[in-house]
């Protein structure tokens, strides 16, 4: 009863093969490739894998990329299935004005985070932060309702925008410091503090909504490790959050 989870972001495709479609399942194999090379999956990374029994994927890169991945999945007799945000699933309700317009990755991450919250103790609010090409900061209340969230540029987009729109600035290799005294450090520190400031502000909003209860902060994404050290609030970095969400959805649907 092996299960293949696929997360197709704006830059990379990540995949993991689990021994079963249930929370706590053991990873048998995993990998990541840039979108430019996904047409090689069937001949390289997936060639010697045992055929999965089922799969579920999350895709934000667009329909053309999804179709390319489905062509690679023809390696096995496997029906491709992709998460579409809904009004409710796996114990999480969707408070977006138009639920189906919520990004699939945000929806899956919310479900994964809710699973971690309930596995760790009584229900409590949670802040779900994804840091990649873009940054999302989403709030879920103690009842499992997604109440809203922020979208802002990732660090790379911020720096490239400054480079293209401001004479004399170049993408830096600076450090994050409290009082930057050179341009490289100023750019790196500014981008990092813009992201952490948005997270901390949303954390305050969610705490106020929750009657003062401090939310659990769960962070994920390829660039999460760069930002986490500068976040002035308790948090945890869970790299597998999207996969965790996919497993929770699969287990919920299979009940």
TrEMBL record:
Cell compartment(s), UniProt: Cytoplasm
Binding-site positions, ATP: 7-14, 133
Catalytic activity as recorded in UniProt: (R)-pantothenate + ATP = (R)-4'-phosphopantothenate + ADP + H(+)
Active site, renumbered: 105
Cofactor(s) of this protein: NH4(+); K(+)
Cofactor binding comment, as recorded: A monovalent cation. Ammonium or potassium.
Key words, A-Z: ATP-binding, Coenzyme A biosynthesis, Cytoplasm, Kinase, Nucleotide-binding, Potassium, Transferase
InterPro entries referenced in this protein's UniProt entry, alphabetically: ATPase_NBD, Type_III_PanK
Record carries keyword Zinc: no
Gene3D superfamilies: 3.30.420.40
EC number(s) reported in the record: 2.7.1.33
Ligand binding (substrate): 96, 103-106, 183
Gene Ontology MF: a single term: kinase activity
Chief place of localization: cytoplasm
Protein family according to the UniProt entry: Belongs to the type III pantothenate kinase family.
Assembly notes: Homodimer.
Protein name, as recorded: Type III pantothenate kinase
Protein's organism: Ideonella paludis
